[in-house]
Amino acid sequence: MPQQGLCVRWALFPNSESVQQVGRRPKCFVNFPIEKTKPPRHAWPMKPPLIDNLQYANFSPAIFEQMRAGGVDAVHVTIAYHESFREMVLNLERWNRWFEDHPDLIFKGTTAGDVTRAQETGRTAIFFGFQNPSPIEDDIGLVEICHQLGVRFMQLTYNNQSLLATGCYEDDDTGLTRMGRAVVAEMNRVGMVIDMSHSGERSTLEAIDHSTRPIAITHANPHWWHAALRNKSDDVLKALTGAGGMLGFSVYPHHLAQGSDCTLDSFCTMVAQAAARYGAHHLGIGTDLCQDQPDSIVEWMRVGRWTKSIDYGEGSASNAGFPPMPAWFNDNRDFGNIRRGLTAAGLDPAQVDGIMGGNWHRFYAQGFGPA
What we know:
Elements (H helix, E strand, L loop, with lengths): L2 H10 L4 H6 L28 E5 L5 H9 L4 E7 L4 H17 L4 E3 L3 H10 L2 E7 L10 H8 L2 E5 L22 H13 L2 E3 L5 H10 L5 E5 L13 H9 L3 E4 L14 H15 L4 E3 L9 H9 L31 H10 L4 H19 L4
Parallel strand pairs: 1-2, 2-4, 3-4, 4-5, 5-6, 7-8, 8-9
Helix pairs in contact: 10-12, 12-13
């Protein structure tokens, strides 16, 4: 077996038979906490996974079939925006029914090893996350309970101020609150990834600094490419990647240069430029795909229960609903367009494989287990 392959296998599967047969630890071992998952013998070598690290589609059997048609091995799905703990549990019940009804297509993922299991069995692993800390309410003990229920990502804010930090739509970003610092430490302890996709600049920088484990911005783009309020500054992205964190590139039109008219070439050239600035191994995909959602859902996302007025967020009164997706990405069958575009933009095969899912797979192995 080539030594390079042995290194990768040891990093992801330190208990595997291949390492035991060799009888020594490879020199390239990376010293970070890794879950111990033993794949079957036929799983090696395994192609790099395809992972979308953020979707909030109106999920259905048709979408699950599209995931399989597109070869998507894992998807991080949003199960809470403004829900309370009990309301979030109802969303989990719905997913449990889907897992029961469609076991040939999807299953619940909680570890990096589940991505490999998805590849082995021809299914898609579904990972849970919150886009708001509302399900933990004002109780830090619910962080561990939610992790036990399978939640692996939690944003410290949506667009507004939360009990933990400041959202990107607030005028005054006061940074992490006292509860925010405590919750970050608890998320680090149990293995729930801190996500700052919708947070303000100061809050994001403080989360990066306060966290003892790498954090993520699961769905956003660089502000230097498109100056949307939700996109992230160069300072934030340098701090994020410098601390080992991950950025997931969004294809949601409000985050794209030229919106729905953004070209594949423009998007992939931006990714290549980000790879040159921050390192390709810190980059992945987080499409923010909201496929088949009615416009009433985008109103729920923006307004929740916090106001009686309509807040248009990234939209406007004349463009209040979900914007049309760019022509090159409409659903889970279109990831091949992104792969081809990244290659055309000059990224090498290893960099493309990493951005399309290998980097998220490594990050899952680092982030999902207890500290």
